[in-house]
Amino acid sequence: MDESIQPQIVDLQESLANLEASLSPILTAGPLSTATSTLPLLDKAKLYVLATYALESILFSYLRLNGVDAKEHDVFKELARVKEYFSKISGAEGRGKGAAQPRLDKGAASRFVKAGLAGNGKLEDMEGKGKHTRFEAAGKRFREAEDTVPVVRAEDVDDEEEDEGEVVEGKEAEGEEKKRKRKTPEEREKAARKKARKEARTAREGKRWQHLMEEK
After folding, report:
1. Which pLDDT value is given to residue 12?
2. Average per-residue pLDDT in the chain?
3. What residue segments make up the domains of the chain, in order of their start?
4. CA geometry: angle 41, 43, 47, nearest 5 deg
């Protein structure tokens, strides 16, 4: 044997030993489909392509060791085809990293939530709307409130309190009358503004409900 090729033979033996150690997990795990059954799709593709490339490379080396022109053999074409799959996998990874994350349509989500809570009695009580059994009745009442929002003055509030005081009987009537008389003009004005804000808020809620029902 030519002594000049002895180092190359040693390198070949070491390479084969390293290759056997690298392929041992796959060779001893049974069918390749079993080893890849729990892997994600992209990792499964990588393992299949790498295993195929390793097998084709071994055949290519075997042909060259036996003096065959491996570049003219079909195995060389298969190696080129497997390399194309490496590029495809790399492209799939790049698209996955650069893909835009799904965004929540907050407007649509808000409409769905409001529609789902429309029949909730406690929620309606908190919003000052009372209990409703049908959306149509609620929409009609709110539309009427929107069209007839009154401008409340301090004098109107004062008159309304006087009318309520006449209905109360006995000591309750006297107590309410004294309490009303003790109110200062500033307090009556504050009560009027509070009532006006409440009615304006009711009108806005009515408009929102009307818009929600029209979308349905």
Report:
1. 82
2. 72
3. 3-98, 106-215
4. 115
Buried b (16+ CB within 10 A) or exposed e, 145-155: bbeeeeebebe
Q: How many residues make up the chain in this entry?
A: 216
Distance CA 147, CA 145 (A): 6
For residue 165 the two structure tokens come to: 């005081």
- For 60, 179, 211, the CA distances from 57, given in Å and listed in that order, are 5, 101, 68
Alpha-carbon gap, residue 36 to 50, rounded angstroms: 13
Task: Give the phi and the psi of residue 169 in degrees, each rounded to 5.
Answer: -105, 160
pLDDT digits (tens, 9 = 90+) for 96-152: 665 555 565 666 666 655 655 555 555 555 555 444 455 566 566 656 655 555 544
* Residue 173 pLDDT > 80: no
DSSP-derived 3-state class of residue 129: coil
Exposure of 177 in the CB half-sphere (CA atoms within 13 A): 11
pTM over 0.90: no
Amino acid at the residue 129: K
Which of 123-132, 139-148, 173-182, 200-209 ranks highest by mean pLDDT? 200-209
Tokens of 200: 């304006």
Q: Give the CA angle between residues 206, 208, 212 to the nearest 5°.
A: 115
